[in-house]
Amino acid sequence: MSLLKNDLFLRACKKLPVERTPVWIMRQAGRYLPEYRKIREKADFITMCKTPELAAAVTIQPVDIIGVDAAIIFSDILVIPEAMGMKFDMLESRGPVFHHPLRNSDDVKSLKKIEPETDLKYVLDAVALTKRELDGRVPLIGFAGSPWTLFTYMVEGKGSKNFSEVKKLIFNNPFMAHQVLDLLSDAVADYLSAKIEAGANAIQIFDTWGGILSQNNFEEFSLRYISKVISKVKRKEEPVIVFSKGVHFKLEEIASAGADVIGLDWTMDLGDIRKKIGGRVALQGNLDPTVLYANEDKIRNEVKKILQSYGEGSGHVFNLGHGILPDVDPENAKSLVNIVKEESKKYHLANAAG
Amino acid sequence: MSLLKNDLFLRACKKLPVERTPVWIMRQAGRYLPEYRKIREKADFITMCKTPELAAAVTIQPVDIIGVDAAIIFSDILVIPEAMGMKFDMLESRGPVFHHPLRNSDDVKSLKKIEPETDLKYVLDAVALTKRELDGRVPLIGFAGSPWTLFTYMVEGKGSKNFSEVKKLIFNNPFMAHQVLDLLSDAVADYLSAKIEAGANAIQIFDTWGGILSQNNFEEFSLRYISKVISKVKRKEEPVIVFSKGVHFKLEEIASAGADVIGLDWTMDLGDIRKKIGGRVALQGNLDPTVLYANEDKIRNEVKKILQSYGEGSGHVFNLGHGILPDVDPENAKSLVNIVKEESKKYHLANAAG
């Protein structure tokens, strides 16, 4: 950490004093950047994930072009199910489609226990290479899907509106669900530990589908396993960020599960949530991603509202409340980052003065 | 109201004493019923909406077959945009697809001010016919989309994942957005007034897409117009139910806007919300619709949790937290209704004793 030229992001995650609020953008290495699309034209999505040189190149692009305060390794949460033996195609129009979704106990038997160092070596190589190429400019974030979110994809087999298959499974065969979630928790923890070992300075757990569950079911099928992952990840001082989209109802419990930082979607009130749990965790977020469709004045107004809502002092990592959309003008992403850098200084004056 | 043989639903909406908790199911007149599919085979969805005899028949089916305590008129929220001149096709696979989505000020000029008594006479006829055929067995609910939800459909033109078009519009041309939302508020209020005039005993406003907005934007673009609709609807004692899916953050404000009943989705905690606003409004909901994929024991357990969460006394209308799914076994819907009827009695004993 001492070798980093810009460690604002890590300091904010630990609620240590900062001169300004750090900012990064979920899906910042993505289709909205022409430089990304140029690489994507030559290689499909999976090939990009599996080729460390390409993954490193697109991971670093937003640091150079957009000016973010952290890089996040280019990859996909579904590399874990794939390494466990579940093949899928990534279709431009429909997202991932698994060849054989997980539906019964026989399907479970065919799941392979993974060794990240061999089965997911390509990700670890990408992390190490990116770390070298970043050369301490900003920290590097590693990530994984939560066990529940991976399980949802594995059971549904493709994008879903009502998540009927995974809900049928948890209601009618909870034993099998818990068995697979347990397996996934070990896999996710080992994988995140290996990413830290390879050089990641922080990790984020994406619980994209936690919000489709009722509160009781969230505790039983998602939170329990997020908690297990956090307790098993081998780390020194690397913070853990948990982003549970739509989970407005269990933020205190996520803090109790050991998260250092909680990511908020744009429907949540940053200031209210700081009052409730800001003493225990840092908060990340939470601009509506569609605000980047607006002009610079509007973006500035909305950024100011969020900074004001959090208020003075450290413990806030600026981000969108969900991933950046593929048709956003990159100039607007640059504006966002610059505006956060300018407007946030005054909320850290006590620190600058001290 | 005095002519109703079963007015439990209306009494619960007004928090008047009841012997047991009333229950109905959003989308109860729908594809999960073989009796519905039999009619649907002979007529397309729009024809069913526009033919009072067919609309009345499917509206009454769940009263006869499932045993619900209220009927809700079979119709679609998009009849209003259609009457304003926006044509759409209803595709089985993709939902509604508008021929010309609303995108600029010229599109606004072509919107027609509607007269429900002529332009939507077929709905009013269906309400009147259903009322006659129900013959006082249970109350009849009329409904409409909220102005914001209708606007979202009109601008996106079809189903959407990120709602990019409508967000672009509110950020870049808020004047036009407010102009159309204002028009829609008048149309919705007039339409709901006409439905009450035709015999509806209660009305529900569906704000299906309120939850895609940040809290400030919800107040500006959705809540303001729900409030306008409620204040303009001509009614005597007919209660207004507002169901804003995903709007966990502004329930108190919806109560202040004049709703008599607030519908909750299944991610919300019924007991907590009763503590906060149960003194002012009744609450409707909120079983996860996918629980109907489970067996009867599981359904009973989940129903008991919800009844216990609300606790003793009136002011609770049992419902799902969203519409019933088309592949649910009708036997499970029947079980749900019977279980609510059985298990809820003990929460109203004080009343029975008095």
Give a quick set of tags describing it:
homodimer; about 350 residues; alpha/beta; TIM Barrel; seven-stranded parallel beta sheet; two-stranded antiparallel ribbon; 17 helices; 9 strands; about 50% helix
Short description:
Chain A has helices spanning 8-13, 34-42, 45-50, 52-65, 79-83, 105-109, 116-119, 121-134, 147-156, 164-172, 174-198, 215-232, 251-256, 270-277, 296-310, 330-343, 349-353, and strands at residues 71-72, 88-91, 95-98, 140-145, 202-206, 240-243, 261-263, 282-287, 316-320. Chain A is α/β, with parallel strands linked by helices and 354 residues long.
Describe the SSE topology:
The structure is a homodimer of 354-residue chains.
Chain A: H1 8-13, H2 34-42, H3 45-50, H4 52-65, E1 71-72, H5 79-83, E2 88-91, E3 95-98, H6 105-109, H7 116-119, H8 121-134, E4 140-145, H9 147-156, H10 164-172, H11 174-198, E5 202-206, H12 215-232, E6 240-243, H13 251-256, E7 261-263, H14 270-277, E8 282-287, H15 296-310, E9 316-320, H16 330-343, H17 349-353
Parallel strand pairs in A: 1-4, 4-5, 5-6, 6-7, 7-8, 8-9
Antiparallel strand pairs in A: 2-3
Helix pairs in contact in A: 4-8, 9-10, 9-11, 10-11, 11-12, 14-15, 15-16
Description of the structure:
The structure is a homodimer of 354-residue chains. Chain A has 354 residues and is an alpha/beta fold. Chain A has a single domain, classed as TIM Barrel (Alpha-Beta Barrel), CATH 3.20.20.210. Chain A is 49% helix and 11% strand. Chain A contains 17 helices and nine strands. In chain A, the strands form two sheets. A seven-stranded parallel sheet of chain A has the order 1-4-5-6-7-8-9. In chain A, strands 2-3 form a two-stranded antiparallel sheet. In chain A, helix 9 packs across helix 11 and helix 11 (174-198) packs parallel to helix 12 (215-232). The longest helix of chain A has 25 residues, at 174-198. Chain A starts with 7 loop residues before the first helix and ends with a helix. Chain A binds chain B through residues 162-164, 167-168, 171-172, 211, 213-217, 246, 248-249, 266-269, 288-291, 293-295, 298, 305, 321, 325, 327, and chain B through 162-164, 167-168, 171-172, 211, 213-217, 246, 248-249, 266-269, 288-291, 293-295, 298, 305, 321, 325, 327.
